[in-house]
């Protein structure tokens, strides 16, 4: 067990895979310096808080819905009354075999306020997140075969996130699309993995002790 774990760790660490990636949004903490995967207060910001940089303001003229809170709430959306956030990745070519998407988002409360409806190139995705207020989380998607096929057919990935009458407020920091199968873990992920492996070892030792006793 331990040998297998070490081998998988080594496999993970054996260097980055050459990959192309495309990003919408600039990972500046929702424009408000809010950390990834943590709790936040938005520090008294109101629901129509707009933390976009000048570059993001320009990008918002079409496909950018990052750094506002809330992104798809009528009247608070960067596009006024819009309730569907659309993110468009273009120029993707037609030689995709695998891919994944990571989305940095905040305050999803699907079980409290209702789910949003999300599609990738028109193909419905499971997006019933209940991360809760006041949590930010980076979510990962492995693109399905149908989505890969649609990228190869159109050279684009168009993501729509429809508020669907949910009364939830939420925000996005960035979306990053990559043409590799799985994310390359960050150093913190290795640390968490090691802690996890340690806990597993501790648990199995305890089980063995119990069995002996
Ligand atoms: Ca971020
Ligand atoms: Ca919320
Ligand atoms: Ca941002």
Automatic annotation (TrEMBL):
Protein name: PEP-CTERM protein-sorting domain-containing protein
Extent of the signal sequence: 1-19
InterPro entries noted in UniProt: Ice-binding_C
UniProt keyword annotations, A-Z: Signal
Pfam families given in the database record: PEP-CTERM
Domain Ice-binding protein C-terminal: start-end pairs: 183-207
UniProt source species: Nitrosomonas ureae
């Amino acid at each position: 067990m331990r040998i297998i774990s070490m081998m998988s760790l080594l496999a993970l660490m054996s260097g980055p895979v050459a990959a192309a990636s495309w990003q919408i949004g600039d990972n500046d903490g929702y424009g408000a310096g809010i950390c990834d995967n943590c709790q936040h207060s938005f520090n008294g910001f109101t629901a129509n808080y707009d933390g976009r940089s000048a570059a993001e303001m320009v990008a918002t003229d079409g496909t950018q819905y990052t750094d506002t809170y809330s992104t798809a709430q009528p009247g608070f959306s960067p596009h006024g009354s819009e309730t569907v956030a659309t993110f468009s990745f273009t120029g993707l070519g037609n030689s995709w075999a695998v891919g994944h998407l990571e989305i940095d988002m905040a305050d999803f409360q699907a079980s409290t306020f209702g789910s949003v409806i999300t599609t990738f190139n028109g193909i419905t995705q499971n997006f019933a997140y209940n991360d809760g207020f006041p949590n930010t989380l980076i979510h990962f998607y492995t693109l399905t075969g149908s989505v890969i096929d649609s990228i190869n057919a159109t050279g684009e990935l168009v993501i729509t996130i429809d508020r669907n009458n949910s009364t939830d407020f939420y925000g996005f920091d960035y979306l990053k699309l990559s043409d590799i199968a799985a994310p390359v873990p960050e150093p913190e992920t290795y640390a968490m993995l090691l802690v996890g492996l340690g806990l597993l070892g501790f648990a199995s030792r305890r089980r063995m002790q119990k069995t002996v006793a």
